[in-house]
Amino acid sequence: MDMPGIVKAFFDADSRNDADALSDTFAADAVVQDEGARHQGTAAIRSWWSAAKAASQFVAEPLEATSGDGKALVRARVSGQFPGSPLILSYAFTLRDGEIAALEITA
Fold first, then answer.
1. Which domain holds residue 15?
2. Domain holding 21: CATH number?
3. pTM of the predicted structure, to 2 decimals
4. d(CA 86, CA 99)
5. Cα separation of 45 and 3, whole Å?
6. Residues in domain SnoaL-like (predicted)?
């Protein structure tokens, strides 16, 4: 899979349920868009991710990835304790200086 190291680090931290390592993949001013909500800054991103993990115990398994020009797109099977599980979601990353500057998650 053509996945930049920082994106792989994001999914690795997610699979280990490691909030510290996951938040470390993001730039200080990063933005995450998920389920119609916007989360900006590493503290807000960490809170969003931790709450989602606690609520649904989800697991994201990357299926395919493409990257180039500071962008990475990963399609992942996401399963957990939520209606419709599992789902295939798209994770659209914007990368800057070796960190995740933005992430948008869509169905």
1. 5-106
2. 3.10.450.50
3. 0.97
4. 28
5. 21
6. 7-101
